[in-house]
Amino acid sequence: MRKRFVSSVLLLSILLSCLIFSSCGGNTQKYSEYSFDYFDTVTTITGYAADREKFDEVAGDILTELGEYHRLFTIYHRFDGMENLCTVNELVDGTHRTVTVDRRIVDMLLYAKDMYEKTNGRVNIAMGSVLSIWHDYREAGMNDPSAAKLPPMDKLTAAAAHTDISNLIIDEVACTVTLADPEMTLDVGAIAKGYAVEMVARTLEEKGITGYVINVGGNVRTVGAKGDGTPWTVGVENPQEDAAEPYFAYLYLDGQSLVTSGSYQRYYVVEGKRYHHIIDPDTLMPEDLYLSVSVVCKSSADGDALSTALFCMTPEEGLALVESLPGVEAHWVLNDGTRVTSPGWNGYERQE
Predict the structure, then answer these.
(1) Total-model pTM
(2) pLDDT: is 227 or 118 the higher one?
């Protein structure tokens, strides 16, 4: 399952570095760079530059900044001399200490709280206690499929009692973070990649750099148009494994992002049924309506959060949310293969 996810990301990376960059503008050329170092996935940077040296300079800066966000946002690793989300989650003598953090962590957590409100709690970074249980059972099931099993509901329910995001206390002035509930932990998996990609893209835009695409594990953000001024063509992956074509649609993007959440990406199998990684905060179970949900909008951070939120809503609820947000369009693939789109989605989709 994890192998297929990585293979899918690699395929998308190849598409982004080859298919969508089929023409060059002016005296610039197309170059690409790959990394496996950040956010447990594949990063692809592709763009136009006058020469390889110029491209390598920009790509190096992008990877450096992504690395900084990766170290700040990870909940799995400590780093010497750094307070990050892993240290925020740690207990000292049975309680969480107040941690002084980098301003970038504060800004991301404030953004996450805002998205919690906008999605009516469907994106909740305070769900770490529940998500860690699913993570452990999923990893065990993938390592030993014959012994795969579901987490007991009473265990999930007990953990869910410690997911109140109001217990995430942020002091913006002092740049401190405190988890008031000793049994609460943060999990920013629904936001971190997209947020990091968006911050890096904004750094490029502030420098006046255009003609790049950043793709971190399928979180795609275009920075300006191609070198010749035409939009990028970005593929939307087909979530059906037996599909003849790997992509069911191609979008024209110029400064927008495309993010897809899918039940086919990270899952394990229990008694013949798949259980994926997107957990509905209401049922505490993987939502079972969709194969994938894709979001097009300006911000990769919004796209990451919204694709997760929409996965945990009915199509009617999701459409209502999308239509309430300017500049956001979405596409759903239901379990039976039916496609549902928001009204403006077709404006991005390439017509054959």
Answers:
(1) 0.91
(2) 118
